Amino acid sequence: MTNATKGEVMPSIIIGGGRVGQALRDMGVEGDVVVRRGEAFPSEPKTGPIYVATRNDVLEDVIKNCPADRREDLVFMQNGMLQQFLDAQGLGANTQALIYFAVAALGDKPTDGVTELNPEGLTAATGKWADAVAARFHNGDLSCHVLDAPTYEGSMYEKLIWICAMMLVGAQHEGAKVGDVATTYKDEVVALIEELLSGTTACTGAKFAPGAVDRLIAYAKTVAHFPCGVKEFPWRNGYFYGLSEKAIADGKSDPFPTHTALLKNIGAI
Predict the structure, then answer these.
(1) How do residues 164-199 score in pLDDT, each as one tens digit?
(2) Using CA atoms, how far apart are residues 214 and 105, in angstroms rounded to an integer?
(3) Hey, which of 101, 159, 240, 253 has its CA 20 to 30 A from 139?
(4) 125, 147, 169 — which closes off a domain?
(5) Could you name the domain of life of the organism this protein comes from (predicted)?
């Protein structure tokens, strides 16, 4: 990667033609290629980021269908805990992005998740193509911060905690949306967020910037209309439940007892 292309919007391959994939194309440049399900991997462009805008459950197929010499260019931006999966695939150092923007419908312009506490935005990227990712997002009038790996790790866990806590507390209350969780059930979700933050630090050593609880509540208010539901369990809440199972198997106390109890309440475990 040359300095001339590092921070530019460059022709790229976009895997996935859904809402996010189309949005990535719309904020791109001539020469971008969108690859949809079942289509062959394109021969052009030969270099640059390969944005993976698919569901988590097809990531393994995406990697298999990508030529071995291009896999280091894959950019992962899915929700959930990706690091363990990527490590197992030999792609642990690949570019990753935390997406704090929303695309309501195919072809819509993305709405940036800026908040009253973070008007500069929360979307972030790290890795080889992080500068190119940020340039593309900026081209679409979206924020994006380029972070080093240790800083990104804390931000990654923070977003994982957000989606796991909001969805799980919301699932306890039929019909609740994210906005309800951040207001009516705020005490419940704050307690769970605090448990997940402290337990994650104890289990992994991850460090969080001050003000994480307030940041996450503020973000919830920007996506208040989102419905709640515990989804993609292995990638989301299943990560924390796995840490609980390991601790208990080792004769230690559950680092996330409230999380475990709430999962049992809805029959998720």
Answers:
(1) 999 999 999 999 999 999 999 999 999 999 999 999
(2) 29
(3) 159
(4) 147
(5) Eukaryota
